[in-house]
Amino acid sequence: MKATKKHKILVTSALPYANGPIHIGHLVEYIQVDIFVRFLRLIEEDVLFVCADDTHGAPIEIKASELGIRPEQLIEKVYNEHVQDFRDFLISFDNYHTTHSPENKHYSDLIFTRLNDKGLIYTKDVEVTYCEHCKRTLPDRYVKGKCPKCNAPDQYGDVCENCNAAYKTTDLIDPYCVVCKNKPIRKISTHYFFKLSKFSRKLESWLKKNKNLQPEIKNFVFNWINNGLEDWNISRDGPYFGFKIPGEENKYYYVWLDAPIGYIASTDNYCKKHGLKTEDYWNNKGSRIYHFIGKDIIYFHFLFWPAMLLGSGFELPYHIPVHGFLTVNGEKMSKSRGTFFTAREFLQKYNPEYLRYYYAGLLGSKMSDIDLSFNDFRKKVNNELAANLGNFCYRVLNFLNRYFDGEVKGIDSNKKLIGEIKKLAKNIGKNYNALNFNEAVKDILHISSLGNKYFQDNEPWKLVNGDREKTHRILGLCVNIVKNLSILIQPILPNFSSNLQKQLDLLNLKWSDINFELKNHKIGKEEILIMKMEEKEAQKPQFPLSLKVARILDVKDHPN
Length: 560
Prior knowledge:
The protein is of the alpha/beta class. The protein is 44% helix and 14% strand. The protein starts with 7 loop residues before the first strand and ends in a 38-residue tail after the last strand.
């Protein structure tokens, strides 16, 4: 598969919120995107992978206040933790930025001004949810109640997690303040609105024309459009951590306005450092923008964001792949049930590439939830990674070093096997490109199984005593299969691939190096790269508790 080199490709993953750690549910997306980007680099596409911490909003301001620190201190601490977690899980961002940046302020003001100049923004008085006890307007995530559409309890004030309906905080039935649990009141406040309703036809047209978007997602969005789009409140009252709206003293951009603009800002931050032009990605009909997201933020990315881009003169996304949620051992992730693990907790017990491999084996192009079953996890690592892929690569290199001093000369001309592997490699490329990583994994394992069978059937340990020359050619073909596997598996297992290529004394192989032309070459020392997991690790992992000792300084009656 050769690169077209026709497009500048920009790939983004959803911005993690800067109020807590990365967990294994988040990692579904970041691993998915990283695999895709690594594949694009392998086929030598011109690709840029950017992301940023989503740092604004009342939750940040409230949490910082609780901790007795400034919001800037909180987001800096969380940023450093996020960067370390991503690095340790081998997520290869070209640029990881923050939405609390000069670039994001510039583009937020630019887009707001352009929309305002076109008459697409107006102000009006609205009812807001106000907590008299906390003395503040309650943001979406700080008021809960029953969903006004499906009546599901304990839903946030913006989107129902049960039926995906979007609504206003004032629509909630039996609302309560998340901070103090008191019932809030309604107040009148003047707010800025974006005329989303004006974009119904244009959004519908874009959805119909874009053949990349998942059909099931399109149907969701068409239903929302057909039911009538409401104009979007893009401002929030202080106290609030974010960018002030130009000319205002106590009104801020709603976090969902400046968060996706963070994609542009992160691109701009990278371009400034590398002598590139941001407009080559965001104002170029030849560019391709991929936004990877979870199914909980479809409304924002398929309606608000493209409408803002349309209204302010930026290119629309080429594709918005949507993935489902993660369950653990068949249950929703939950701290109380012991099925919630941070990325850091997971790293204390497991090799991060094992999780990359497990997720890859489950991820397809459809919006399906995936389950992390620890029993299945152990079996896949032991039976597929260690016993199949790792074992084949190690035994081939070990045999070549032991009997032929690591030298590859000619190769066995087994046209049937070579033809079958070439065909499988082509399919693997197509499946990586189509985001069907589960199918790519099956074919990679199939190639490894074919290599194992070929090695086993030829019994080189017997043949070497009678026909060294033929044995050497058989090993030559096997080493070529190992080399090809090191490239095919690289998007999923970058460290394994890199270490395997070092053992082969080959560096920086590209997709175009998938062939059977490795001859007259000497390999290095082999090592076992994948260890089997212990049986006890099949159980739900018990992570260390964080125990703290406290001294009671004062006791008072609670005011309520």
